[in-house]
Amino acid sequence: MAAAAAGVSSPVCILVLGMAGSGKTALVQRLTAYLHSKNSPPYVINLDPAVHELPFPANIDIRDTVKYKEVMKQYPCLIRLICWTARTTNDHLGREGVDLHRYGLGPNGGIMTSLNLFATRFDQVMKFIEKRQSASQYVLIDTPGQIEVFTWSASGTIITEALASSFPSLVVYVMDTSRSTNPVTFMSNMLYACSILYKTKLPFIVAMNKTDIIDHSFAVEWMQDFEVFQDALNQEASYASNLTRSMSLVLDEFYSSLKVVGVSAIQGTGMEEFFEKVSSAVEEYEREYRPEYERLRKKMERAESQRQREQLDRLQQDMGPVPMENSPAGSGATNESTSGPSALILTRGTVEDEAPESDTDDIDHQETEESHEEPSFRTFLQEAKQRYSARSSH
C-alpha cells in the first residue's frame, strides 16, 4: 500500500477530479471495492451535492449537511442595481438605488453555494479524518461532476489546501479515453489537466478510464512521441488543429513528469498499477511538497509574529511613557516611571504590594468637575437674563 511504502502513518488523501461523464464516481466505487477486498477499507467523502444515488458507502456525505435543491430554491442571490440618472435641477449626475431583486440559483450556482456552505465546516471533517487515520490508510474524495465548480472556486481551494497541509495528498484526473481518440479533444484534456496541476500544486496522476472500450496505448504514444501526434493532427484541417499543433510543443515538459495509468471502472482492471502510481505520488509529496508546505507554514507564522510585534510597537508609540506621580522615592520609583505601557500591562494584577483602590478618587474627581461647571452655569444664567431684559425693553 502507498502509505506503508512511504513509511507514513497519516492517511493518503486522493482527490478524484475529471470532466462530467468521465467516470469519477464509478472509479471511486471501484477503488472502494478494491481496497475492501484487500482488507484496507478507505474513508470515503462525497462532495457532490447534486448526485441522486451513490454506488458506494460514504463516511461523510455533503447531502447530509446541505440540501442542494433547497439551496437552489431558498438561497437568494441579491443584486443591487445602481443606475445613474441626470437630474433636471442641476448638471451633475446623481446615483439612485433600485430595490433589491431576488433571483433563484441555477444548477451550477446551487452546487457552488452548497460547497461554500460545506467548506465553512470542513475543520470538523479534518477532525473526523484524524480520528480514523489509524483505521484507514486512504481517504477517497469524490468531487462534483462540474469540474470547474470545484477546481476554480474558493471552497475547492480551501478543501484542497486544508487536506494537503495536514495529510499526504494527491490529485487523480480521470480522463474519458473513448472520447479522446480525436487529437484536438485529447489536447483539450491535457491542457485542463495541466492547469489543474499548476493550480493545486500537488502530485498528479492521469487515470485514463474506460479502457474496456478502447486501449489507452494510443494516448500514451501521443504523449511520448511528438511525431506520431503530429501525424494524427495532419488528418485534421481546421484552426483548432493548428492551435493544437503549436500547443503540443509546450506540453512536452508536462508529459515528461506526468504519471499515467489506464484503468477500467467497470471491469476493475489497472488497480494494481494505479496504487503503484499512488505510492510514487506519496513519495513525491513527502520529498517535494511537504517541505514546501512546511516552509509556507513557517513563513506565515513569522509574518504573524512580526505583525503582532509591529502592533505592540505602535501601541507603545501611541501611549508613550507613563509617568508614575506621587510614587515613593527610590530606584524602584524611577524604574516604574520610565517603564513603557507594555510593562504596565504585563505586570498589572501581579504586584502584591499594590495599594488598594479607593472610592474617594471618583468622588474627588466628580467634585472637581462640578467645581468647573458651576461658574459656567452662573455665567450662562447671567447672559440669559441680559438677553431677556434686552428683549423686554424693546
Characterization of the model:
There is one protein chain. Helix content is 55%, strand content 13%. The chain is α/β, with parallel strands linked by helices and 394 residues long. It has a domain at 2-63 and 111-300: P-loop containing nucleotide triphosphate hydrolases (Rossmann fold, 3-Layer(aba) Sandwich), CATH 3.40.50. The strands form 3 sheets. A 7-stranded parallel β-sheet has the order 3-2-8-1-9-10-11, sandwiched between helices. A two-stranded antiparallel sheet has the order 4-7. The chain is elongated. It starts with a helix and ends with a helix.
Task: Summarize the entry for a quick read.
This is GPN-loop GTPase 1. By secondary structure, the chain is of the alpha/beta class.
Radius of gyration: 34 Å
pLDDT averaged residue by residue: 78
Q: If you consult CATH, what is the topology of the domain at 2-63 and 111-300?
A: Rossmann fold
The CATH class of the domain at 2-63 and 111-300 is Alpha Beta
The CATH homologous superfamily of the domain at 2-63 and 111-300: P-loop containing nucleotide triphosphate hydrolases
Helix content: 40-55%
How is the main sheet built?
7 strands, parallel
User: How are the strands of the largest sheet arranged?
Assistant: 3-2-8-1-9-10-11
Shape: elongated
Organism: Sphaerodactylus townsendi
Protein name: GPN-loop GTPase 1
What are its keywords?
elongated; 11 strands; 394 residues; 7-stranded parallel beta sheet; alpha/beta; Rossmann fold; two-stranded antiparallel ribbon
